[in-house]
Known about the structure:
Elements: E1 2-10, H1 11-20, H2 31-43, E2 48-57, H3 68-81, E3 85-88, H4 94-104, E4 107-110, H5 111-122, H6 126-140, H7 144-147, E5 154-155, H8 159-162, E6 166-167, H9 168-203, E7 208-213, H10 219-227, E8 244-249, E9 255-260, H11 270-275, H12 277-284, E10 288-294, H13 300-314, H14 318-324, E11 325-330, H15 337-349, E12 353-355, H16 364-375, E13 380-386, H17 394-400, E14 402-408, E15 414-420, H18 422-432
Parallel strand pairs: 1-2, 1-3, 3-4, 7-9, 7-10, 10-11, 11-12
Antiparallel strand pairs: 5-6, 8-9, 13-15, 14-15
Helix pairs in contact: 5-6, 6-9
Amino acid sequence: xxxxxxxxxxxxxxxxxxxxxxxxxxxxxxxxxxxxxxxxxxxxxxxxxxxxxxxxxxxxxxxxxxxxxxxxxxxxxxxxxxxxxxxxxxxxxxxxxxxxxxxxxxxxxxxxxxxxxxxxxxxxxxxxxxxxxxxxxxxxxxxxxxxxxxxxxxxxxxxxxxxxxxxxxxxxxxxxxxxxxxxxxxxxxxxxxxxxxxxxxxxxxxxxxxxxxxxxxxxxxxxxxxxxxxxxxxxxxxxxxxxxxxxxxxxxxxxxxxxxxxxxxxxxxxxxxxxxxxxxxxxxxxxxxxxxxxxxxxxxxxxxxxxxxxxxxxxxxxxxxxxxxxxxxxxxxxxxxxxxxxxxxxxxxxxxxxxxxxxxxxxxxxxxxxxxxxxxxxxxxxxxxxxxxxxxxxxxxxxxxxxxxxxxxxxxxxxxxxxxxxxxxxxxxxxxxxxxxxxxxxxx
Length: 444
């Protein structure tokens, strides 16, 4: 389908941007980058963007958002390019959406509707499908006024007992609410299953490392690079949606679980944040968060601010984030040689920063070593049963680990619940004489 992309820029937003125009501290998004991102979102669902435009708005109209002159100009463009879809990169009220569709005789969707459409196509697991369906229904709840043409009809009410009866829109809203409740119940069951998986992983003494970042920052490519997994990685917004977890070994032998999460985006619809909260809570469980940034994107500073804002909404504040978040400056292979060298030099002297190219592998070894160093002091929990011929290890365990509980079994063995560091865990493995374990495995 041919599509036209419109990016409204409100006067107050331009004034705010001008007030912030003081160099690198500016984190507001430029209209040009918004237009490019909106086009990228449209391309992610195979739309043919035939025209894109930035539209300054001094006085937003409650009925149509845009002025009459701009509406007529866009109507002419739709006729010229034979386009049947207009994407407005701005929230639209149901009334504005309906009025614009009448004016242009074309389908109109706003930013929220476009992101929901992408998520609907990308969801592949049952949980992802339920989350997207729930978000979409909550979005549509207030838009039945434009979705139906028979709302003036009424039904019910017979003779003197009935009265006017139930209007069609009331019936539609009731059915919609019933479906929302049904989906919420199904999603609760899936969430309980995810919580059981988390509890199961907690019994295994492996720290969790979560990848977060703006969509298309290269998280999945980095995930594939360091785990050898085959997660879909394309130069496309929201190429992957469902979270993936893999077990892998760090350079010094410690096993960790790496989690690849859904990409973030500016103005992420609140319906989606709520629906995907169970998935995003994987980040809250992580011992270390890798914030992947696309340094080849001129808008990466604003993208970083959007990611940190969403992490703050999830409950990861600045103070906690400074300790748990490691910034990964990705895609340095796309930079010009001089810019590349400057970024690598800056990253080498900065705290909590590693510069890498997930595609070429540059800097990945340094990243792995830094992950290993960060997690070396993290206490892990494990339960072991000492056979009779290993009971001599008891004094060493009491001196080097935290023993939470002990059970002396009838066969002479001893079962212990322990907390110990990576170094002590490796030493215990050596003293127990256990062989190496597989480097990675899938966690469903």
